[in-house]
Amino acid sequence: MKNLFKKLDKSNLPYVEGMLSIIANILLFALKYWAGIVTGSIAIMADAWHTLSDSLSSVIVLLGAKFSKKPADKEHPFGHGRADLIAAFVIGIMLLLVAFDFVLQSYDTLKNGEGSMFGPLAIYVMIASVILKELLAQFAFWGARKAESKVLKADAWHHRSDAISSLIILIGIFLGKYFWWLDGALGLVVALLIGYAAYEIIRDSIYTLLGESPSAEIIEKLKRTCERCYPENLHPHHFHVHSYGDHNEITFHICLPPEMSIREAHEIVDYIENQITEEYAYSVTLHIDPLDEVEIEGFDSNEIV
User: Fold this and answer.
1) In what residue span(s) does the Cation efflux protein cytoplasmic domain sit (predicted)?
2) Which end of the chain is more exposed for a tag (fewer CB within 10 A), N or C?
3) CA 162 to chain centre
4) 113 or 121: whose pLDDT is higher?
5) Does the pTM exceed 0.85?
6) Under CATH, which architecture does the 216-296 domain have?
7) Confidence band for 63, pLDDT divided at 50, 70 and 90
8) Domain with CATH 1.20.1510.10 in the chain
9) Average pLDDT of the chain, as a whole number
10) What kind of fold does domain 2-210 have according to CATH?
């Protein structure tokens, strides 16, 4: 199994995860809905439709993966990588709707003083749902880390939200007869957890779409490369990173002596840009500032303007 995971290319992970998710969700929908009809449980039938809605998020994963891999064209010179971020944003909104639905259902349950009654069949179906959905979540989280994909991370949380909702029903089965309010109270707790996960997914997507400041780790890597490429301190500063999914554009400034010829400066810049591209797969553009010893005195190379 480990060897199988190693063979999976990160570019194919969204497709693999999406197809597995669609197949598993349709199968779980059929099982839950059948169990809901047999036991007469409205909660299980509602959870079945929640599971089916996960298939929609998986379709979004596949569409996001497809469009994000399209090459650059005249209208999109930096590629279509941000389609992945848009897909993650859509899934985040879907998670918010799921959380809101949990709040409404839990409120109605508490308001009406309703408890949950389930038959033995519900136990087996819900246990299967919790296990399978958590396995899908773990696979999606692993794929998100390997492919650095926000949309896979978003879909993983969607899988986990369904596993949690099934777990709530299980808790209601075993403890609901002692505490009539338990199902509603746990529903509110889960709604808050899912809502927070949706908030993080939406926040990360929006921040990247709007443009983030480069991390200190990235800046340090770029500075070390500059130090290896040129013996003098170039005082790199004014870092900017623009992310387009798999494609990242990085610009920053370096300082060179004003008496240096244009050809020599050009060769230094080309060499640094090529080294950074080879080491980190970034597309780099450097701007040259004249090095003035009087003005550079006290200059903080960690400064980001």
Assistant:
1) 214-290
2) N
3) 17
4) 121
5) no
6) 2-Layer Sandwich (3.30)
7) low
8) 2-210
9) 76
10) Alpha-lytic protease prodomain-like (1.20.1510)
